[in-house]
Write a structure and sequence with these properties.
By secondary structure, the chain is α+β, with helices and mostly antiparallel strands. It has 2 domains: 11-170, 2,3-Dihydroxybiphenyl 1,2-Dioxygenase, domain 1, CATH 3.10.180.10; 178-293, 2,3-Dihydroxybiphenyl 1,2-Dioxygenase, domain 1, CATH 3.10.180. The protein is built from 7 helices and 16 strands. A hairpin with a 2-residue loop joins strand 2 (41-47) and strand 3. The longest helix has 12 residues, at 78-89. It is globular and about 55 Å long.
Amino acid sequence: MSKQVPDRAETFLDHVAHFVPSLDVGAATLERLGFRLTPFTAQQNWTPNGMVPAGMANHCVMLREGYIEFLTAVADTELARQFRAAIARHVGPHLIAFSTGDLDLAHGILESNGFRPQPPVNLVRPVSDADGQLREARFSVLRVPPETMPEGRIQLLKHHTEDIVWQPRWLGHPNGIVGLKAVLLATADPEESARRFGCFVGRVPVRRYQRWVLQLDRGACVFIEHSALHQVVPWVHAAKPAPWIVGMALESEDTGRTREHFAAGGLQPHETAPSEAVYGLPPELGGFATVLPAGADVSWAA
């Protein structure tokens, strides 16, 4: 397994989260598509006065590089209210999380670039290990006022319990998916969005033809002008109002096996490039997923 926690000066694309109305329905769909899920977990925040509910619960698809999260609201908190506002617009990806090796350094970058970061939130979720012992998965999360990043809930985090979060028993998916490679966003002004995201993570984006690419130490964010979306990625249908997170690129160790499992789950691919296929995910999950062989370049990020 690749390392999941970046070094001090590194930043990774850690995970993408889909906001879904029902985790039960979403989990059943994901399992039909050949994914192995972590158990249902309600998230909690650690405070000096004890644990308090975060208002959100999840299932995760853990990968050898990064992961995909599926979130729903389970209480009335500020995060849950933001979730309900987002899902009223559309079901699908609404959150991008970057992981950092140095939270203080990341906080300083956000402050110096005018993002007004909130104090770190210490998230905890109970997780059983392979022997059935109850452990705690712990993260520290940096969030910013929602209006500063209108593309979605964009955040930075630091992992404290890599071995508990990425347990080997969750990494072997029958469909062969092994990694999260990139995320695609459609905005009215992709240059502005890319440069702002670059300031958020301390990187400089580059222009490639009709798109802007923000390359990280692992993974990338790609920005396309919403009005030109169909020229660059013609497989998109039912576009949402800009800005929105269109979908992600996933690596597979066996694209034939992925195709078989996705077909069994009712998904048919759009062929976009040799050995690359795009799938519109079911409405209970939302968004799109490009699948390509491990190590290959994504056509819309090249």
